[in-house]
Amino acid sequence: MGKVFDEIDDKLAAWIKRQRMFFVGTAPSGGDGHVNVSPKGPIESLRILGPRRVGYVDLIGSGAETAAHVCENGRIVIMLCAFEGPPRIVRLHGRGDVVQIGEPGFTQLKAQFDLDSVQAAEAARAIVVVEIDRVADSCGYGVPLMHYEGERPQQLAWIESKLRRGGDDALMDYVADRNEISIDGLPAFAPETLPRRAEPSPPSSLLLVHGAGSGPWVYDEWPEAFPSLRVAAVDLQEGLEVGTASMSDYADRVVAAARALPRPVSLCGWSMGGLAVVQAAARARPHSVILIEPSPPGEVQGFDADVAMVAGTFDPEDVYGRFPAGVPARPESSLARAERKRGISVPELPCPSLVIYGDEFGDERGTPIASLYGSEERDFPGLDHWDLVRNSRVREAIADYLGAFRPVSSA
Q1: Which residue has the higher pLDDT, 192 or 30?
Q2: Cβ atoms within 10 A of the Cβ of 267, count?
Q3: Residues 177-193, mean pLDDT to the nearest whole number
Q4: What integer is the mean pLDDT of 157-161?
Q5: Long-range contacts made by residues 229-233, C-beta under 8 angstroms, separation at least 24?
Q6: Looking at the domain covering 205-402, what would its CATH class be?
Q7: Which residue among 42, 215, 314, 406 is least packed, with the fewest CB closer than 10 Å?
Q8: Residue 277 CA, distance from chain mean position
Q9: Is 87 exposed, middle or buried (0-12, 13-18, 19+ CB in 10 A)?
Q10: pLDDT at position 410
């Protein structure tokens, strides 16, 4: 039979600490919103703060339902199950308060937790404190016996990847972008209160990389959109025998051109040039990468080892269609094209990135690539593949992303 307790006594507190995880349940006010149940852990993130008071460290996740519901109405239940040993379920009903990182009181409250024992504590976005009004247990006969094997490695790997790609503020940027509201539109985490370690600074240079069969001239009108940056457009074919040029050769040209510019440098590649940029990024170590409907890496496109590697050249207008009036076309490497069709592996980027796409290849070269690299996205409905390098709105969006709307210094 279940039992209702006056408070969390020492015996119950010891049982709680022996569990491996816990669950939280919340719901929005009214009858139309979505009820939410979330698994939480490790158990070290849950702290008994008093006989009728508990708190837990809320780690970054893809959603923010619990925080949104508690902020709206305070109702919350914490449930723990015995997966090993005698069966038992314990529920802690109460009223919660979400103390978001960056808000007054968070640092003082955090000191009551042993964060050194909490895996992924650097991903803390809040502490949820619950004033308990009911403590009860039940039989737990329906909970299966399960053996604990360990914590999953994916969370730590995700954190490391976000910080490596996005810098010190990547986790807070994720919260601001993904956790501001619930699925029902309720406010959860206020972006303006999230702490930042450093204000983002713009690059000093911008390197532009053209697509197949074109050349640096497709960017002739770009420099004026970036008055505070040194803007250069690389010619991928310069110094190469085009008939035997590979995508690695093109990436080498990007690296060499980037190293000749004032640092930090942002790399911007369109179409085939986008793939050359991602190939070059690990060596060029750019400030950021901007991909404009890029040729996709193998991780998105897939791999086909049966594609024959044949040297030679082809007429890009025979393959891709007529170029816009006034835009010169030139022979392109058949070998590089075959490599792209076979699939080139570039599983990650070392820096923040932006993916831009329009109507023509958005499903192939837009969101799937942004998902692979954890990139920001900009969609331009009504623009085709060529429009993306010719329309001033795209340049303005990139300048805004880079923080480049600044006057050129007179110094």
Answers
A1: 30
A2: 32
A3: 91
A4: 90
A5: 229/202, 229/203, 229/204, 229/205, 229/266, 229/402, 229/404, 230/204, 230/205, 230/206, 230/261, 230/262, 231/205, 231/206, 232/205, 232/206, 232/207, 232/208, 232/257, 232/260, 232/261, 233/207, 233/208, 233/209
A6: alpha beta
A7: 406
A8: 19
A9: middle
A10: 30
Is-contact 136 4, C-beta < 8 A?
yes
pLDDT for position 408: 36
Angle between helices 272-284 and 334-342 (to 10 degrees): 80
Domains 3-193 and 205-402 share a fold: no
pLDDT at 199 over 80: no
Which CATH superfamily does the domain covering 3-193 fall into?
A: Electron Transport, Fmn-binding Protein; Chain A (2.30.110.10)
Q: Are 305 and 283 in contact (CB under 8 A)?
A: no
Q: Measure the CA angle with vertex 377, ends 381 and 373; round to 5°.
A: 140
**Those residues with Cβ within 8 angstroms of residue 57's Cβ, 6 or more apart along the chain or in another chain:** 45, 47, 110, 113, 115, 118, 121, 124, 126, 127
Write out pLDDT tens, residues 111-132.
899 888 888 889 999 999 999 9
Contact 91, 78 (CB under 8 A): yes
- Spell out the domain ranges in the chain: 3-193, 205-402
| Amino acid residing at 18 | R
- Residue whose C-alpha is closest to residue 234's, from 270, 273, 201, 208: 208
pLDDT, tens digit, for every residue of 229-258? Answer: 999 999 999 999 999 999 999 999 999 999
Q: What is the pTM of this model?
A: 0.56
Q: Give the H/E segment covering residue 100.
A: strand 89-100
CB contact burial 127-160 (16+ within 10 A = b; e otherwise): bbbbebeebebbebeeeeeeeeeeeeeebeebbe
